[in-house]
Amino acid sequence: MAREELARSFESIGEEYDRYRPGFPERAVQIIVPSRVDTALDLGAGTGKFTSLLRDRARRVIAVEPSLAMLDVLAARLPDVEAQPGNAEAIPLRDGTVDVVSVAQAFHWFDRDAAAAEIARVLVPGGGLGLLWNRADPACAWDLACHRVAHPAVQDHDATTATAVELPGFVLEVHEEVRWTERITRAHYLRRWGTVSSFLVADEDGCEEMTAALERVLDHDPQTRGRPAFELPHLTDVFRYRRI
User: Fold this and answer.
1) Would you say 99 and 117 are in contact if contact means Cβ atoms under 8 Å apart?
2) pLDDT tens-digit map of 116-150
């Protein structure tokens, strides 16, 4: 299935994404914005899960997101943030007006070179760019097994490792792996998988089959079997770049 179709699958959800998707650790924003700045842009902001962390690190926070359903949720949750429709390949901001750009769980949907050029355009000279992704902890067998159900084409090493993206016009300054844990109910965990692209593009039978497979994993693993809630470990990879 084309990447564009998978990316567009998120356009129909907003409140579900905000309710069930995980957030990000405070340490991530400390890495990306180590000291307070004037203007920060969260690009591909979704419903504002990372945007909310920027508000204490910048005088002015702008969120740009192509999905209007997600942008509506962000605007309602974060009325002090300037929410604007747009995408990474055509950012609706003037040249050199942003001190730092963040992209949380979204850069893999972008056209790399076009997005890098646009980000460099809106950044001030020497401005910062932070890319971050949550990923499965390889020590958590049941979560990794669920990843295999929802993303059968993704190999284990792809789900549990992260490498820096080479970006024209930028130099990588920092890569830090942040470990954190989330307390989550079984019902919430299953609903979370319903917000990933493979579920969103599947037909009813496909969704039912994947959900049944997820439930079998939870029913058989000793860390989750018979439990209404459990501890879910996360790894968040944070990459901080500088415009050159």
Assistant:
1) no
2) 999 999 999 999 999 999 999 999 999 999 999 99
